[in-house]
Amino acid sequence: MSQHRPAGASGRAGAVPALPDLPEATVARLPEYLRALHNLAEAGDDTVSSEGLAAAAGVNSAKLRKDLSHLGSYGTRGVGYDVALLIHQIEYVLGLTHRRAVALVGVGNLGHALAGYAGFASRGFRIAALFDADPTRVGEEINGLTVRHIDDLLQTAAEERIAIGVIATPASAAQRVTDLLVAAGVTSILNFAPCVLAVPEGVDVRKVDLAIELQILSFHEHRKASLTALPGGRDEADPDLAATGTEDTAAPAPVEPAPPGRTRPTRTEVVGS
């Protein structure tokens, strides 16, 4: 669970009411519910059933009802959920009732695109500062902000009351940037660099690796191709299997004993090397 940092060097406000300790899977789905609710509100809908909201968010209704019960929201039988009230509840739990300042470090191709994305403002976030170590990029203006040198991060984080740091640097620079963000009192980091960051206890890191996502999709493509390689599937390729419904399982070959004084090595599988 993420830890709340008391007011200190960052200058942010202190104690807040305790929030429920939600399951990580529930927290991950709340933004999907919120997006669907905003779409419903824009369409003029005042209420929504659990089935309707679940369909809009792409989950099953039982899971949605369980998630929302963690917030103390159970809806009204025969009516459903009040859209405006549920938006407020989810925004409160996600800490979106006030806009959070974000520092973006690394304004290469990806960072440049993130800095110019207008959707952050409507989701409760403000890109407050841009940083880079490349002298050719320092001083550049992106979406109304001037890129500052990374050496200015500590001072700027305090001045802008930075709540979240976004890392869009090469992997070789990501740990140094992380250390600077932590030193500045930032305890929430979104990492786009393809590496694992070392952080102290109480610092939350979310990793977004687009290459990994593509590799996962590649697995699904590979699997679909393997399933459709034979037109009739496995049963057509093996008539005996289709007729009996069982595989012909031969007895395993005997294992040859190891020479005296030696042990036979065990089989090791390497996953995700």
UniProtKB/TrEMBL annotation:
Residues that, per the record, bind NAD(+): 106-111
Annotated Gene Ontology cellular component terms: cytoplasm
Broad class of the protein's primary localization: cytoplasm
GO biological process: negative regulation of DNA-templated transcription; response to redox state
Subcellular location: Cytoplasm
Gene3D superfamilies noted in UniProt: NAD(P)-binding Rossmann-like Domain, Winged helix-like DNA-binding domain superfamily/Winged helix DNA-binding domain
Region called Disordered, residue ranges: 228-273
UniProt domain CoA-binding: residue ranges: 96-196
GO molecular function annotation: DNA binding; DNA-binding transcription factor activity
Keywords: Cytoplasm, DNA-binding, NAD, Repressor, Transcription, Transcription regulation
InterPro entries: CoA-bd (IPR003781), NAD(P)-bd_dom_sf (IPR036291), Rex_actinobacterial-type (IPR058236), Rex_DNA-bd_C_dom (IPR009718), Tscrpt_rep_Rex (IPR022876), WH-like_DNA-bd_sf (IPR036388), WH_DNA-bd_sf (IPR036390)
DNA-binding residues: 32-71
Record-linked Pfam families: CoA_binding (PF02629), Put_DNA-bind_N (PF06971)
Presence of keyword Oxidoreductase: no
Family statement drawn from the similarity comment of this UniProt entry: Belongs to the transcriptional regulatory Rex family.
Function statement: Modulates transcription in response to changes in cellular NADH/NAD(+) redox state.
Subunit relationships: Homodimer.
Protein name in UniProt: Redox-sensing transcriptional repressor Rex
Organism: Micromonospora pisi
The organism's taxonomic lineage, starting at the top: Bacteria, Bacillati, Actinomycetota, Actinomycetes, Micromonosporales
